[in-house]
Design goal:
The structure holds three protein chains of three kinds. By secondary structure, chain B is mostly helical. Helices cover about 85% and strands about 0% of the residues of chain B. The model of chain B has no long low-confidence stretch (mean pLDDT about 90). By secondary structure, chain C is an alpha/beta fold. Classes of the chains: A mainly alpha, B mainly alpha, C alpha/beta.
């Protein structure tokens, strides 16, 4: 897998986000065994120390658990996954609203815009 | 060290095989001439063998110096100097391989010459001219020497050992050029002058050392002196490499 | 642990490395960054014992670097250095003859990963194939220190992935990996630390995640800040 990274944001956070998304969307199912730290590093072409930190962070967020000697597994706690979906949705919403605020669009207008069908992308590229 | 030795041998294998090949051809020419009584072919073969021997032994030494130069100045130097071998071992394998090759070629060509003369004698061919040349060569070295197998063998040994000393002195000159003189203008010329100076110095000191009185022991004694000098050159060169060399 | 203390190397009038003190710890990948001619290669060659410093000293495992350190230190130079007569198989045999930590099995695996075969003549390899061969034979050593000088030079995209993979695989708690590059982004995701060398001086050693977390900038941004308005050559 090749992932495009934002070089200004810690790599481990980006990989954490990628795995969180997989858990929420069901690409990784509850109780599923995760690759070893080394394999994760190879999959994402990242440093194994970074991979270890990814698992550390996910474990702190109670999204995975470690069985000694067996490896790491996706949490089996469905409520945690539902909560995660909520967290991620809130994050997106926050970013979205912040963006609209910067453009000076009011909440009311924003609500109207959401109701309209999504405009087709104009093929403009993000310039970073 | 046997592994270093193996790779040193490998580096000059190609040219050695070429000389063995030429020698084989010349020997065949000689033998055909001898057994078919074709005097021209025999003489061509004989001269060919003589010059191949001379060129072969000279080339082995010169090539060894060139290989050292290449092993110090090109990227191939990493092949030697990234291995856990110190300069004494690296240079030692080169010096030993070379002395071994020179002496072995001496035995090889000397043995062939002896065999070819023997065959000549068996055919009852007049070899007086050749013997005259050999005798005058011996007289040149020491008027007391009579033509005999031991005298010729001792002479050959002395010549080979003096050649080994020339080569080890050459190593020293190359290493000087790659260390103290590295990057300096005229490094090649200065190291060549060094080479001449060291050769003269070793020759001058050697003459001062009293040796045996008889002719053949004197030759063997001289051979030993040359070898001793070669060992001195080796230690000086390896010491400089160890302390100063960057590749 | 590999360390240089106030190490300096002068070539003629040019000071290639100027009083660099640098300590590398096992378990990490260090990216040595700087323009061509800034002194990266010279530092590495001193650490490999190929070049003798003019002053200062190199230490390995707490002791001054010596011939025996080479048992534990693997160095891969940018330029090809194999003997002309060698095939890829001969190169492996040579390493096996001289390095106890060399694994022929691993070498064969890396060769096939890189789509190379033993019968290839080193003399006639393309620059990309040569780069892959050098990586394969160097990484087949279980060395405590692995130094790769510009391993991604002249490498196509697919081979680059293979090389990055072998670098990530080589990380181990008891191994130092030092990789130089003048192409900064290449090592962005895999390196733990960036060692910035500028005009033969050490500027700083920075943790890459730390740089991103605390300053919100990439190693490329940092690189630009350090090297702006400065060439690599010291004149």
């Amino acid at each position: 897998m090749t992932m495009k990274y934002n070089a200004s944001v810690p790599i481990y956070l980006q990989v954490v986000d990628s795995i969180r998304e997989k858990i929420v969307t069901g690409k990784m199912s509850p109780g599923e065994k995760l690759p070893s730290g080394r394999d994760l590093a190879l999959m994402y072409t990242i440093n194994p120390n970074t991979a270890a930190r990814v698992y550390q962070t996910l474990e702190q967020q109670k999204l995975l658990f470690t069985k000694r000697g067996l490896g790491s597994f996706v949490t089996e706690d469905q409520e945690r996954v539902i909560a995660l979906r909520e967290e991620m949705a809130q994050e997106l919403l926050r970013d979205f609203l912040e963006g609209l605020d910067r453009l000076g669009i009011s909440r009311e207008d924003a609500i109207e815009m959401i109701k309209l069908p999504a405009p087709a992308a104009k093929g403009q590229k993000d310039t970073d | 060290m046997s592994k270093l030795f193996k790779y040193e041998f490998r580096k000059s294998l190609f040219s050695k095989l070429i000389f063995v090949g030429i020698t084989g051809v010349m020997e065949i020419v000689y033998l055909i001439g001898l057994f078919r009584d074709l005097e021209d072919m025999m003489v061509i073969g004989m001269l060919g063998l003589f010059f191949t021997a001379l060129a072969g032994i000279s080339f082995i030494g010169i090539e060894s110096i060139l290989i050292l130069y290449r092993d110090l100045t090109t990227k191939q130097s990493y092949m030697l100097f990234m291995t856990p071998n110190n300069s004494y071992k690296i240079l030692g394998s080169k010096a030993l391989e070379n002395a071994f090759s020179v002496l072995l070629s001496g035995v090889f060509f000397g043995g062939m010459a002896a065999l070819d003369f023997f065959l000549l004698g068996r055919k009852n061919i007049q070899i007086k001219d050749i013997l005259d040349i050999l005798t005058s060569m011996l007289k040149e070295v020491d008027p007391r020497l009579q033509i005999s197998a031991p005298a010729l063998a001792a002479l050959l040994l002395m010549i080979l050992c003096s050649w080994v000393l020339q080569i080890t002195t050459g190593y020293l000159a190359v290493v000087l050029a790659c260390t103290f003189l590295s990057g300096k203008k005229g490094a090649a010329v200065i190291s060549f002058v060094f080479y001449i100076a060291i050769s003269m110095l070793t020759g001058w000191i050697s003459k001062k050392i009293p040796g045996p009185k008889e002719a053949i022991p004197l030759l063997i004694f001289e051979a030993c002196i040359f070898l001793a000098w070669s060992i001195v050159m080796y230690f000086i060169t390896a010491w400089i490499m160890d302390k100063k060399l960057s590749v | 642990m590999l360390e240089s203390r106030e190490i300096t190397k002068v070539f003629g009038r040019k000071t290639a490395v100027d009083h660099i003190s640098l300590k590398l710890e096992p378990g990490y990948i260090y990216a040595m960054l700087g323009p061509n001619g800034s002194g990266k290669t010279t530092w590495m060659k001193m650490a490999a014992g190929l070049i003798k410093p003019a002053s200062g000293e190199m230490y390995y495992a707490g002791r001054p670097l010596d011939v025996n350190s080479r048992r534990d230190i693997a160095y891969m130079s940018t330029e090809p250095y194999f003997y002309n007569w060698m095939t890829a198989a001969d190169v492996g045999k040579y390493y096996q003859d001289f390095f106890e930590d060399f694994s022929m099995e691993k070498y064969h695996r890396l060769l096939s990963d890189m789509e190379l075969t033993g019968d290839l003549k080193t003399r006639s390899l393309s620059s990309g194939m040569m780069a892959k061969l050098k990586i394969a034979v160097t990484m087949a050593r279980d060395a405590r220190v692995i130094m790769l000088d510009e391993p991604l030079n002249g490498i196509d995209l697919l081979a680059r992935d293979q090389i990055m993979k072998s670098i990530v695989e080589a990380v181990s708690p008891d191994r130092i990996l030092l990789i130089s590059s003048h192409l900064v982004e290449e090592l962005e995701t895999v390196a733990d630390y960036a060692v910035f060398i500028k005009q033969s001086h050490l500027i700083e050693v920075r943790g890459l995640e730390e740089l991103r977390a605390s300053e919100g900038i990439s190693v490329v941004d940092r690189y630009r800040r350090i090297y702006a308005n400065a060439g690599g050559e010291n004149e």
